[in-house]
């Protein structure tokens, strides 16, 4: 059995409170204290909600049509997902966190781990309160902070800090007595432990392991046999033994997928091509951001499996002659892929593009197009990326991705893109 060290450096997790709903409030102060929900693509499912919305009985994952009575009764503010806004605000938050620690691991759009190595324990709570206050002041987003000896314990501290007002958003359990840590573990349901999913929760509770504290007392051999070595690492982390290191450098993705359900059913190959062109463009942009080129491109499409209409789904894997990071080149291959798998007579609900087989850009060789053409394409791509970054994502786009895009994802209640679109800049009156 591993034993706990007395010299483990502190790690904190900073988690945004009700992130999507909080983003909607930043530029609309009238929403403060009011119930807010944010919908999934096509405005179907509730994917985020404020505490006020939870209080009236709305739950994450509820279909909007099923809670319309609650929405009307309690005057709930409903928004379509605005991922451009959320992504930009997230970037600003992560940049702010880097002012407080040289080692920041971005875990998700609304959460990051930060190393507090070198800080004295008595100053940790005060320092993390400063982090919390700075993010709120600079960005307008409320966050909670948990500090502990391991990532898993810091997640538990964060959850308690978020739910119990007496901690004012910050809970520091680093370096405290083990019996005090045990008290926090005893009030944490095993289902709320980081890394314990639904199936493991059922298994653990079946074996009378109901809390995080119970899990720390589980037999190591039993845990490894039933939850693999990953489950054993979770147990060690709960015991204060670090097993999951901080990764300040985000590893490159092995695959990039861009897919969406249509706002309505699509029947024509022209509209399928428009959507595939758009998704190829977006996937290529993400790929270039990690300085990669791809050798494999997959295009897939399907009908709605839950609708009683003729069904069809198919995909095609396209091998590029040489790795490419050119959107122009990838769209060309993607269009050929669509032509191979499209069939008339079906109501298509979803299409997507996946890029794989990545290599560093500097290893790419000339291939399908001659050197002069590829040099020109590279310059066009670089210019488009720069202008779209500076002036907004649709400043320049490929005509093949369509102009009106009537097939696009439904988002009738989307807020403006306040921080990334010049036309949506909020107006301030003195």
Per CATH, which architecture of the domain at 256-401?
2-Layer Sandwich
Bulk shape = globular
Low-confidence regions: 363-370
Beta percentage is 15-25%
Number of helices: 13
Written as H for each helix and E for each strand, in order along the chain, the element string is EHEEHHEHEEHEHEHHHHEHEEHEH
Q: Which terms would index this structure?
A:
five-stranded mixed sheet, four-stranded antiparallel sheet, alpha+beta, Dna Ligase, domain 1, single chain, 430 residues
Account of the 3D structure:
This protein has 430 residues and is an alpha+beta fold. It is built from 13 helices and twelve strands. It has a domain at 256-401: 2-Layer Sandwich (Dna Ligase, domain 1), CATH 3.30.1490.100. A hairpin with a 2-residue loop joins β5 (104-108) and β6. α11 (269-289) runs antiparallel to α12. The radius of gyration is 24 Å and the shape is globular. The N and C termini lie far apart (65 Å).
What is the strand and helix layout of this fold?
Blueprint: E1 11-16, H1 19-26, E2 36-39, E3 46-49, H2 51-55, H3 68-73, E4 77-80, H4 83-97, E5 104-108, E6 111-115, H5 121-138, E7 143-148, H6 151-163, E8 170-172, H7 178-186, H8 198-206, H9 212-216, H10 220-238, E9 256-266, H11 269-289, E10 292-303, E11 313-324, H12 327-341, E12 348-360, H13 371-391
Parallel strand pairs: 2-4, 7-8
Antiparallel strand pairs: 1-6, 1-7, 2-3, 5-6, 9-12, 10-11, 10-12
